[in-house]
Sn-glycerol-3-phosphate ABC transporter ATP-binding protein UgpC (Halocynthiibacter halioticoli), 238 residues
Amino acid sequence: MSGVSLNGITKAYGQLEVVHGIDLEVQEKEFVVLVGPSGCGKSTTLRMIAGLEEITDGDLSIDGRYVNQVAPKDRDVAMVFQNYALYPHLNVADNIAFGLRIRRTPKAEIESQVKEVGGILGLTEYLERRPADLSGGQRQRVAMGRAIVRQPKVFLFDEPLSNLDAKLRTQMRAEIKRLHKRLGVTSIYVTHDQVEAMTLADRIVVMHDGRIEQVGTPMDLFLNPANTFVAGFLGSPP
Ligand code: ADP
Ligand code: MG
């Protein structure tokens, strides 16, 4: 089991509450997309799951374990950001291996993992290059490689494609989908892009002003939007 369970998850910055008691069950191996307009609380929610933001109220479980107080590195999650902060002085192989070195993984195992993950992501020919000599799409693949080698129970994506041009975005979307099919890791993916949500998600969670408006499959939401906000946001008839 490696689902994620949010129970009344709330975030306040001082007096200002920005996430208002969210309930959500993400099933093992499921690909769930949080979608909603800018400022609705998507990143804050994801960062609370990652442990990068303290939870003001509510309970969070990952893989059946209550983790509110657990440090980010011990939560078995890996996050992929929009700004793939790669180490500029390290080549692709060393960037991918970075998290493993910190954990004192044996050298032979690091080498075989970098090889395998590089192969999965189509980076085999680029392992010796520095990030500056890669395209945007290749850099984003390295960032994903760094997440994959850690073999997390859950992947968290925060708008990973929004810095890429339209063509590359479409291509990377397909790759993320293929990767999810192959690895089967529970994924929570944040975007403000409706098309991205519709194409990637097993289930979509529509957020608005720190609340969940509706949860359902892309088809559910398209055919039976719960309210005019969901209908308008996803572009289906009211
Ligand atoms: P989204 O990712 O959906 O665009 P965020 O989760 O980043 O939205 O932000 C949700 C709300 O919380 C916004 O109104 C934002 O201004 C506010 N917010 C985010 N981070 C902070 C912070 N560190 N201090 C105060 N307010 C914040
Ligand atoms: Mg955000």
Summary: The first helix runs from residue 42 to 50. Strands lie at 4-13, 16-26, 31-35, 57-62, 65-66, 77-80, 154-158, 186-191, 203-208, 211-216. The chain has a mean pLDDT of 93. The pocket of adenosine-5'-diphosphate (ligand 1) is lined by residues 13, 18, 36, 38-44 (CB under 6 Å).
